[in-house]
Design brief:
Elements: E1 11-20, E2 23-27, H1 28-31, E3 34-37, H2 45-51, E4 59-64, E5 78-82, E6 97-101, E7 107-115, E8 119-123, E9 133-143, H3 147-152
Antiparallel strand pairs: 1-2, 1-3, 1-9, 4-9, 5-8, 6-7, 7-8
């Protein structure tokens, strides 16, 4: 198997633009190409699957449906929490992103959906749940991962966490 196409176990550098409902949500133009270790769930599954076999310099438009992206929107993924659970000095506002831990100590990301005098309603859906993701991707580099990267299952030389 030649190492000049995207395949599991290689570090892929890609330029990309993510568009949802006609609005550009994310792009590598600002921060430079995103690097990810193929085959390790570093990026949404639908995109990774479509990129397999691409060569350096090749670009592609990929439509990722929710099932292969951030999941379907879950009507049950909401929770009402008493305001008293939050620190008194914390400024609560709609859309605020919170890191919530459950009884088992698992951390989850939640967003404040609404607030009233007694309760705060939290939404545990990913902001892009239920969204069709339109990616334009271009492969700009391929390399072998370092032993440490393989061991950890992700690329080390950047601060990008998607």
């Amino acid at each position: 198997m030649s190492k000049d196409t995207v395949q599991d176990g290689l570090v892929v550098s890609m330029e990309y633009t993510l568009t949802v409902d006609g609005e550009v949500l994310d792009s590598s133009k600002d921060a430079g190409p995103l690097q990810f270790l193929a085959g390790y769930d570093n990026i949404v599954p639908g995109l990774e699957r479509e990129m397999a076999g691409m060569k350096v310099g090749e670009s592609k438009d990929v439509l990722v449906l929710p099932v292969d992206g951030y999941g379907e929107f879950d009507e049950d993924a909401f929770m009402e929490v008493s305001r008293s659970e939050f620190p008194a000095d914390m400024e609560l506002e709609e859309g605020l992103e919170l890191n919530v831990s459950d009884e088992e100590g698992q951390h989850q990301l939640a967003f404040i959906e609404s607030i009233n005098d007694e309760t705060v309603r939290l939404d545990f859906n990913h902001p892009l749940a239920g969204a069709e993701l339109q990616f334009n991707v271009k492969v700009v580099g391929l390399r072998e991962p370092t032993a440490e990267e393989l061991d950890h299952g992700h690329v080390h030389d950047e601060d990008h966490h998607h």
